[in-house]
Write a structure and sequence with these properties.
- The complex is a heterodimer.
- Chain A is α+β, with helices and mostly antiparallel strands.
- Chain A folds into three domains: 7-88, Acyl-CoA dehydrogenase/oxidase, N-terminal domain (Butyryl-Coa Dehydrogenase, subunit A, domain 1, Orthogonal Bundle); 124-232, Butyryl-CoA Dehydrogenase, subunit A, domain 2 (Beta Barrel); 248-381, Butyryl-CoA Dehydrogenase, subunit A, domain 3 (Up-down Bundle), CATH 1.20.140.10.
- Chain A has 13 helices and eight strands.
- In chain A, a hairpin with a 5-residue loop joins strand 6 (196-202) and strand 7.
- In chain A, helix 4 (71-83) packs parallel to helix 8 (248-263), helix 4 (71-83) packs antiparallel against helix 9 (275-303) and helix 10 packs across helix 12 (370-381).
- Chain B folds into three domains: 8-112, Butyryl-Coa Dehydrogenase, subunit A, domain 1, CATH 1.10.540.10; 118-217, Butyryl-CoA Dehydrogenase, subunit A, domain 2 (Beta Barrel), CATH 2.40.110.10; 219-364, Butyryl-CoA Dehydrogenase, subunit A, domain 3 (Up-down Bundle).
- Helices cover 52% and strands 17% of the residues of chain B.
- In chain B, helix 5 (86-99) runs antiparallel to helix 7.
- The chains are: A alpha+beta, B alpha+beta.
- The interface between A and B is large, with 49 and 53 residues.
């Protein structure tokens, strides 16, 4: 058992820190404070710059323009970016790119991988539909092959980032009669294709997600990922690369909360001097340490060549619930001033408590709801029995 | 490279311990609990023979003890629910090794070989330690309010960490014969299956040779007591893990409404939450053990481990009590042993208030009692 970081990882981290210290990122941070799910214009500019300087694709192999570093180093990188409230390229870097390396054609690799590392190609993920949420295998968007093209018809929803991404990683039904997991395919679709309509959906956090309509959109067959009708396997590979969830954004929220309790209502008699307040903060600090350890464990498992299923689910549950709890309990500690909206000068902790109170609920159901995560833990790690199909239980 | 899995040696140690402890059935546990001695001396001799009592001795070549190995073995005795003087012996050997001089090392060696019986007398709260008053002739006098001490009646010798009267930054490590004048040992009953005594020092005169070290830094002593807590966490986590295993077994075997209980999402999610909490506490505990084995102990890591283990283990046994229902409530089903032990061990770590005070001091730079 070894909890230590190798010297080489420490060197890598300090190089990254000096590099980031040299950039002027105030605008990017301001964007993240408003919406930390997608990079805004300044964030995209930063990512393009980082791509040019070789600071994207940390875990990508050298042959695809990456640094070929370990999962632990990739995790450290993502934590550093999150702690500074910077976007890190999202799923295009961590999931879509690596999946294409594994399943993509030579042409797809040549077309997409360098463009992802230049931050010119950014993927939104098109899984959810109005009637297919957690049960994604029930999706109905159809793709019919006509010659060298698929003709896509249907609707996706809650497609976060679709309005400023270039492409969508789109799950469609390609087999006319197969149902559920069989007969699905994954297509790489340019969002400026004829027949794609992106409509905004605004959220309680003043952030934007989207509905995306596909009205006989023509997609070259060359943009099929893996085999036709084997899309479920491609979706699972993409999911396997989506296992690291970072805690440093929650740590930053926490530190800002603590800083605020040291000066409010006055430095002479601050909130933190109240033992009850200190104890609630202390508990959060201890829970953040566990978040760090669960993340480290997940990255370490990936480095052994194993996909951490239940361990990643535990990490996701812990971090998402902790981050929202810091916001919720943080506001409870703050009291009356907590009602001030982000952007108000007197809003505590740069307004992040109230913003995360509104925005953070999404963490607990996005990327697999925490209920599904707990199912996974119970069935994969503890081997509890699965329920029989509903019809049999009640029939 | 960071790797949080057990390495080959650690795994072998765990497997050997688990195999050896298979003989510990619930029937034997309950019979030891009502027996005169409270433990099985044959099992204890075998444990000493396996080298378990020497795990906290300094490593050959002068390095510190391998506390990960210690934590692994204690995790297994905890998982078995075994009452024994092992924990006290390991803590006492560790204290003698870290804080005492050469005579202490000799005594530690005898304890590690099972040739002597000694326990550490120190309350959970370092503020309530026994006081030592030094005389000009080198002798000293011990005074202190009663201290709840595991396996006090089993011991021939007490190792007493004490505050030195008039020297706030200085502490001492003292060895006292259990039969010495002024030493009181009363039997008391705890609600778990460990044996407890109440030890009182009423103006106990200690000869110069009994003061093993008279200039222990207060910080070093507090770190030593924190390490005691950390080892207790590893044992407690073993018991809580067993409670989860029993729950999963029960939920898999027990059929109601035509299906195993474990198919229900309410049951699965409770088990998942127990596992997440235990894994988190286990990682925190073993990170702190690793740190203390490879360099100076981190009181911050220990504060995290203590709080997490105390909370997670309680969550696990309370969850298990709900999941196993009436069966789990009975004496014949093993859960009750772990249900009782985990809570008693948690209480031996001190109050939740003191745990949160430690965390606040470590993370928020807020001193206690502000």
């Amino acid at each position: 058992m070894d909890f230590g970081l190798p010297d080489d990882s420490r060197r890598f981290l300090s190089e990254l820190r000096s590099y980031l210290d040299g950039l002027n990122l105030d605008k990017v941070v301001a964007e993240t404070l408003e919406d930390d799910h997608e990079a805004g214009p300044a964030g995209q500019e930063m990512l393009a710059q980082m791509g040019r300087d070789g600071w994207l694709g940390i875990g990508w192999p050298a042959e695809h323009g990456g640094r070929g570093r370990s999962a632990v180093d990739q995790w450290l990188y993502l934590e550093e970016m999150a702690y500074r409230r910077l976007p890190a390229g999202g799923l295009s870097i961590t999931s879509v790119g690596p999946t294409l390396m594994k399943l993509g054609t030579a042409e797809q690799k040549a077309e997409f991988l360098p463009a992802i590392l230049r931050a010119e190609v950014r993927f939104a993920v098109g899984y959810s539909e109005p009637d297919a949420g957690s049960d994604v295998a029930s999706l109905r968007t159809r793709a019919v092959r006509v010659g060298d093209e698929y003709v896509v018809k249907g609707q996706k929803i809650y497609t976060t980032g679709a309005h400023d991404c270039s492409h969508i990683w789109l799950a469609v039904r390609t087999h006319p009669t197969e149902t559920r997991h069989r007969g699905l395919s994954v297509l790489l679709v340019a969002l400026d294709s004829l027949g794609v309509t992106v409509q905004p959906i605004y959220t309680q956090a003043d952030t934007r997600t989207n509905e995306v309509y596909f009205d006989d959109v023509r997609v070259p067959v060359a943009n099929l990922v893996g085999e036709e009708n084997e899309g479920w396997a491609a979706m699972m590979v993409a999911l396997d690369f989506e296992r690291i969830f970072v805690y440093a954004a929650a740590l930053k929220d926490f530190e800002e909360l603590v800083a605020w309790t040291r000066v409010f209502p006055s430095e002479k008699s601050p909130l933190i001097a109240d033992r009850t307040v200190a104890h609630r903060l202390a508990e959060m600090a201890a829970d953040l340490e566990v978040a760090r350890l669960l993340a480290l464990r997940t990255a370490c498992i990936i480095d052994t060549g194993v996909v951490p299923t239940a361990e990643a689910a535990a990490l996701k549950v812990w971090i998402s619930e902790l981050r929202h709890r810091i916001a919720t309990e943080g506001l409870a500690i703050v009291g009356e001033h907590g009602q001030l909206k982000a952007g108000e000068d007197a809003a505590p902790a740069a307004g992040q408590l109230e913003h995360q109170y509104r925005a953070g609920t999404v963490l607990k159901f996005a990327s697999g709801t925490n209920e599904v995560m707990r199912d996974i833990i119970a069935q994969r790690a503890l081997h509890l029995p699965r329920a029989r199909a509903l019809g049999k239980v009640y029939g | 490279m960071a790797d949080l899995r057990l390495d080959d040696i650690e795994q072998m140690l765990r497997d050997t311990a688990r195999r050896f402890l298979r003989q510990v059935s619930v029937e034997r546990l309950l019979s030891w609990e009502t027996s005169e001695d409270g433990y099985d001396s044959d099992v204890w001799s075998s444990m000493v023979g396996l080298g378990w009592a020497s795990l906290t001795q300094a490593a050959e070549g002068g390095g510190g003890a391998n506390l990960i190995h210690t934590g692994i073995v204690l995790g297994e005795t905890g998982r078995a629910g075994l009452p024994s003087p092992l924990f006290q012996t390991l803590v006492t050997v560790l204290g003698l090794t870290r804080l005492g001089g050469d005579p202490a090392a000799l005594l530690a060696e005898r304890l590690a070989q099972g040739e002597a019986r000694a326990v550490t007398v120190a309350p959970a709260d370092p503020g309530r330690l026994v006081t030592l008053t030094e005389n000009p002739d080198g002798t000293a006098v011990l005074c202190g309010s009663p201290v709840l001490t595991e396996w006090a009646l089993w011991a021939q010798t007490f190792i007493v960490p004490a505050r030195v009267e008039g020297a706030p930054e200085r502490c001492a490590l003292v060895v006292v014969d259990a039969q010495a004048g002024g030493v009181g040992v009363e039997e008391a009953t705890s609600f778990d299956n460990e044996r407890i005594g109440v030890v009182t020092f009423d103006r106990v005169v200690v000869p110069a040779s009994g003061v093993l070290s008279a200039d222990v830094r207060a910080d070093d002593l507090e770190t030593m007591l924190a390490l005691r807590d950390l080892l207790r966490c590893s044992e407690m986590l073993g018991g809580a893990r067993r409670a989860l295993e029993l729950s999963v077994q029960y939920a898999t075997d027990r059929v109601q409404f035509g299906q195993p209980l474990g198919t229900k999402q309410a049951v699965q999610h409770r088990c998942a939450d127990m596992l997440i909490a235990l894994d988190g506490a286990w990682l925190a505990t073993f990170e702190a053990l690793w740190t203390a084995s490879t360099g100076p102990a981190s009181t911050r890591s220990i504060a995290v481990a203590r709080f997490q283990a105390a909370r997670a283990c309680e969550q696990a046994v309370l969850g298990a009590a709900q999941l196993t229902g009436a069966m789990g409530f009975t004496r014949e089903y093993p859960l009750n042993v772990f249900f009782r032990r985990v809570k008693a061990q948690q209480l031996r770590l001190g109050s939740v208030t003191s745990q949160l005070d430690s965390l606040a001091a470590e993370f928020l730079a807020v001193s206690e009692g502000v």
